[in-house]
Amino acid sequence: MERQKGDLLLSWQKKPIGVYLGDFKYYNFESSMVVNLSPILLKVSFYTEDGLAGADLFGADLEDADLRKANLRKANLHSANLYSANLYRANLTGADLSNANLIDANLAGANLWRANLIGANLIGANLIGANLSDSDLTEADLTNIKYSESTVWPDGCRAIAK
Fold first, then answer.
1. On the chain, which terminus has fewer CB atoms closer than 10 Å, C or N?
2. Is the residue at 157 inside a domain?
3. 158 vs 12, 37, 151, CA distance in Å?
4. Domain total for the chain?
5. Phi, psi (5° rounding) for residue 8?
6. Tens digits of per-residue pLDDT, 116-140?
């Protein structure tokens, strides 16, 4: 299988070392920088037990990344570019998504309980069935979002769900 943007990369000890960014580059969790990648590394999916829980992905470019069902609980995604990323049923409980670019992101069924979405750009995002309870949407741009009766809103945002 060919690597795709957003694939989790593991060391030979099966410990997460980074996220593939495309063009043989990856975001290194240890050094918080972009590193060139050897073409011999194999694709690894996000379906590990801990996934990216608590990972520091501050400002990471994860445009179009396939993060379906990823465990991003308490991850730091402040100012990350998640434009058109697939976060279907991802666990983003307590994640910091402040000032993140989530334009056209698929967050259907995602768990965003207690997520920090202050200033996040959610234009056109799919929030159908997402759990946003206790999340902070202060100054978030919710223009043209998709949602349903099953979308759970934080207190004070009931007017959105009509």
1. C
2. yes
3. 48, 46, 10
4. 1
5. -80, 135
6. 999 999 999 999 999 999 999 999 9
